[in-house]
Amino acid sequence: MSRFLSEKFSDLEEYVPGEQPQDIKYIKLNTNESPFEPSQKVIEAINREEISDLRLYCDPDCKKLKAKLAETYSVKPENVFLSNGSDDILNFAFMAYAEKGAVYPDITYGFYQVFAQLHGVNSRIVPLKKDFTIDKDAFKGQTGLVVIANPNAPTGIALKLDEIEELIKSNPKAVVLIDEAYVDFGGESACRLTEKYDNLLVCQTFSKSRSLAGGRLGFAIAHKDIIADLEKIKYSTNPYNINRLTQVAGLATLCDDDYYKENCRKIIENRKFTKIELEKLDFEVLDSKANFVFAKSDKISGQDLYIKLKEKGVLIRHFTNERISEYNRITIGTIKQMKELISKVKEILGEKNENS
Ligand SMILES: *Cc1c(COP(=O)(O)O)cnc(C)c1O
């Protein structure tokens, strides 16, 4: 830290992303990326001509992409907002709506806490129930911003659509942000409810189910007045925040929906395989509707398993937060990767037995 940094940022604890090693080839099951490459349509769309056009600024309105998203989700373009990853949209939502405070669960996406701190927002943190489900009754009658990841991270547990609707209805004085980063892996989207409720903001991303994490593309669906607020903030920070190539890639992605749906189906199948195999090894595995599982074992600590798997070339995500420190979050990859994971876990448990 320099001696010049504004005092308000001196205590800010920044978000720590999962490891992104650039050297050794790991089986990378730590940041919930897709194991599948983008569609051939995306690969063909990024051509010489598009690269040549990089000399020109991009369309700040992302008109083509917005129209296609509106069509895909059966809403109007005025109900769609696009930004540089959904993290960007979360940031804007905290700026726009959290003056009277923000409310979110204790165990959830770690960035909510960081945005709250960044913008000097008061947070009310609601503990998950013992079984790691969201205590939705504790979220009623809030003001400011209510943030729920559905499915939640890193648990993978999802609320039903009628439970989400209840949450929206019971918070007429707050904006209810539903972060649907993982919804394509078996959750129910609240997108359609944006027609009915003017306090609902649904966020999604191309990073997980649409194999575009490195492209940085997120979108929101909401009442047009909420979208206008977000546009105001985007145009006051960086109107060109989605680069040309990502806009082209995003559009091509939406033109090959079946490819991505098939990939999601494979992930769901591989998730089932992974859960069953881990349970055979006496792991407790939460019921996930996301592209990861959250699991713990009485035979090995969360930290130990993370370290030993890394030594064997498999990266998973371990969190030090006390309530979940015995767990690990394991991204679902290809079936080959998951078989490799299971075989390494067996090796590690076997080695532990020999030593004890
Ligand atoms: C991955 C993730 C995001 C961020 O997605 P980007 O679009 O890559 O910024 C947002 N929310 C949750 C819960 C996530 O897991």
State the main characteristics:
2 domains, 7-stranded mixed sheet, globular, Aspartate Aminotransferase, domain 2, alpha/beta, 356 residues, 11 helices, 15% strand, binds pyridoxal-5'-phosphate, Aspartate Aminotransferase, domain 1, 3-stranded antiparallel sheet
Task: Please describe what this structure looks like.
The protein has helices spanning 40-45, 48-52, 63-72, 86-97, 111-118, 161-169, 224-235, 244-254, 257-280, 302-311, 335-355; strands at residues 27-28, 80-83, 102-105, 123-126, 144-149, 174-179, 200-205, 218-222, 283-285, 292-297, 314-315, 327-331. The protein has 356 residues and is an alpha/beta fold. It folds into two domains: 12-36 and 258-351, Aspartate Aminotransferase, domain 1, CATH 3.90.1150.10; 40-255, Aspartate Aminotransferase, domain 2 (3-Layer(aba) Sandwich), CATH 3.40.640. A seven-stranded mixed beta sheet has the order 2-8-7-6-5-3-4, with helices on both faces. The protein has a three-stranded antiparallel beta sheet with strand order 9-10-12, with helices on one face. A two-stranded parallel sheet has the order 1-11. Helix 4 crosses helix 5. The longest helix has 24 residues, at 257-280. The radius of gyration is 21 Å and the shape is globular. The model has no long low-confidence stretch (mean pLDDT 97). Residues 32, 85-87, 109, 149, 153, 179, 181, 205, 207, 213, 218 line the site of pyridoxal-5'-phosphate. Pyridoxal-5'-phosphate binds at residues 32, 85-87, 109, 149, 153, 179, 181, 205, 207, 213, 218.
